[in-house]
Amino acid sequence: MSGQKFGAAGSAALVIGHCAGMLDLVALPVWVGALVERYGFSPQQAGALATLFLLGAVVASGVSAPRFNRLNQRLLAILGFSIAAASFFIASSQTAFLPLAILHLLAGVSAGTALSMVHGTMGQSANPHRLFAAAGMALGLFAIILLAAIPQLLIARGGPVLFHVFGGVMVIAALCSALLFRNPSARVEHSRLPFSRATWFTILGISIMTFNQSMVFSFVEVIGKARGFEPAHVLAVLVALGFVNFLVPAPLAAFLQTRVPAPLITQIGPAIQALLAVVVTGATIFTVWAPATAIFVAVQIFTHTFVFGRLATLDPSGRAAAATPAMLMVGAALGPLVGGALGENLGFAALGLAGVLVAVVSIGFFTKAKIA
Q: Quick one: 164 and 229 in the same domain?
């Protein structure tokens, strides 16, 4: 069955839902920072709150994705974003750890469910690869705006404004879902078929690659300062990284869609990621470290666009695409924990070695998917 056309309005709702649902991956640094600086939580407590949101999203995606075809995608997107918005607005009035923990978990479950509906519907579009690339570009622009605005708002308005912004983003996504979201037509003939081996190997490959990205990227600022680089220079590299993520990977992935086979990209992506990880964690010269750091995340975004298109082809039901939040966020949740343990006990160079080993595993799964 060929892909479905949702029109400009329907596609816009999916792109906006993608940006809202991926809020955690975009705002994680200022999120954790605000919980430490404005609320007085320890880094471990702040990290735990963010992890609860991530784990809630992973569980929700894992539960809803296999049932994607039997659900009302539009209704769940509206409800998911609405409940997430309410959770964040209530969180803005709380200061104690326990209520914030419960609200983070609830927001994660709600947003994760909505995002699974968005990604599953994207996977049934006429051109999932191109639509996911457009969503990735929009997310890059959203990240630049958000990371520029939130620190200034925190200075002016205090800690609760963080949750006001997050709640506002979820309200916009809920309204757009209510007004513009179009359910894909039912694909009953696909809904109960098990995933192929190629689909499972592709899911495992991108999940491990995401874990690798999170394990190294979580500590780039710490690594830069530990190497003795000027804090202002390190910050400039992170700003440059944001613009690279916006301008390069998604448009390049869209341009190369019909020019380079997706299975080949899935094998090359983790290898480049591993090479950059070695440079980012080991370089002591700023002019070497800075370019590698600036393009590090872009490799993940570029590769994942091809993976999303491939999953949509391998599983026309949209269930594999609907599991995208779980693939992304399980890595985002576990990567910093492993990276922190390695960096603290063995030094940051160990992160680079671990990055190479993990990349080999990722390439192995992608290769199995190619020949399955």
A: no
Please identify, among 132, 159, 186, the residue that sits at the C-terminal boundary of a domain.
186
Contact indicator for 81, 114 with CB cutoff of 8 Å: yes
Residue 272 makes CB contacts below 8 A (sequence gap 6+) with 299
Which amino acid is located at 17 in the chain? G
Alpha carbons 250 and 271: distance in angstroms, whole number: 19
* Closest listed residue to residue 369, CA positions, set 202, 210, 209, 207: 202
Q: Which of 108, 102, 177 is nearest to 326 (CA)?
A: 108
211 touches 361 (CB < 8 A) = no
pLDDT digits (tens, 9 = 90+) for 62-120: 999 999 988 999 999 999 999 999 999 999 999 999 999 999 999 999 999 999 999 99
Residue appearing with tokens 């799964």: 365
Residue 253 within a domain: yes
Residues 238-257: tens digit of each pLDDT: 889 889 998 999 999 999 99
Helix (H, G, I), strand (E, B) or coil at 125: strand
Residues 235 and 135 in one domain: no
Q: What share of the chain is helix, strand, coil (3-state, %, to 5)?
A: 85, 0, 15
Distance CA 87, CA 99 (A): 10
Which conformational region is residue 7 in: left (phi greater than 0), alpha (psi within -120 to 50 degrees), or beta?
Answer: left
